[in-house]
Specification:
Elements: E1 37-38, E2 46-47, H1 53-58, E3 77-80, E4 83-86, H2 88-101, E5 102-104, H3 112-124, E6 126-132, H4 140-145, E7 147-153, E8 160-162, H5 167-170, H6 177-183, E9 185-189, E10 192-196, H7 198-210, H8 227-242, E11 247-254, E12 257-268, E13 272-278, E14 287-292, E15 297-299, H9 301-304, E16 317-321, H10 326-340
Parallel strand pairs: 5-8
Antiparallel strand pairs: 1-2, 3-4, 6-7, 9-10, 11-12, 11-16, 12-13, 13-14, 14-15
Helix pairs in contact: 2-7, 3-7
Length: 342
Amino acid sequence: MLFLCAFATAMAATADRAYAWGKKRSTSASEFISNKRVTDSLVQDLTCNKLSIEGIYYRIKDDAFHESRNMPITNWPFRSGVATIAGCWALSSTQRMISYMARYNEPTSLRMDQISPGLLNQIRGGTLELVNDNRNNDNYALRSSSERIITRSLKANSVFPVPSNSLAEDKWHTNSLWMRLLEGHVENVDGRNVHRHFRAEIEENQARHFFRASNIGMGAGSGDRSASKNQETVATMRRNAETKRLTLVNLRAGRTAQHIVMVKSYKATKDMITFTVYDSNQPSKDQLLYYSVKNSAFYAPDIVSRFVLENTSRSLGVYVVDEDEREMLEDAMLAYYRVKCR
């Protein structure tokens, strides 16, 4: 779908500085929990006597991120403030979160409507809070009119069970998590009722990702990038894919034609590197992003054709984004397996 960069095109900034990157930290530090080994839908034979973030990544199953576990919903456009945008950034971010946090084929005594409220917070990236800038004002009408609901940033992610083998399969079952997410629930926020559901939370997440000052670089240019920048980007993408670190990348076909996908894996020959990606415009089947070794350029005609009408075979600008979101996911995985290892 089409990104409309309503605020960025006149700004001067480099795209590489436009995106949020997390602080580097050690992921190899290990701890002894027990001599147990853990296997579930994400990991195979994870050792508990040297538990580490690096060790968890190393033990992730080859089929853990299979396309059958893509969210069964297609990207959509919506109005947000002055711009019409689409939900691809939030959907890719949420797909990454679910890829690491969901545990499939795990029966639970909890009802899915007990699990879905917390998961909607994770999809939104925060919790709701009612604030009043005139709370000390004696004028009740003025005080009431100044009430507004804001999002407080989420402090932690958590793992959740899915009784079926995928969310698509789960939606046909009784007590379905996917259907509870779509239907949502009414949350009382300090006396005000708010209907929370998957689509609304994705739209809030998308607006949070899209409308931030650090993104002004996405409009500073159009189309492809230099060979040296592409070489740096492809090196990061390969390194992440080799260690099961799912990566979000922005595909820029033009200044106002941009799309976020999630990189899962890759295959390389001497001439071409082919990345398998989750594309929210075509979620039922993974798509392909190509890197030409000879040209040092990226191409994705089957992906770009969904949001660009002309010249879909031209090279793209590709940027790794939102590496800073990885830390909370890693913390949640480590906390979960600490408990499983006891």
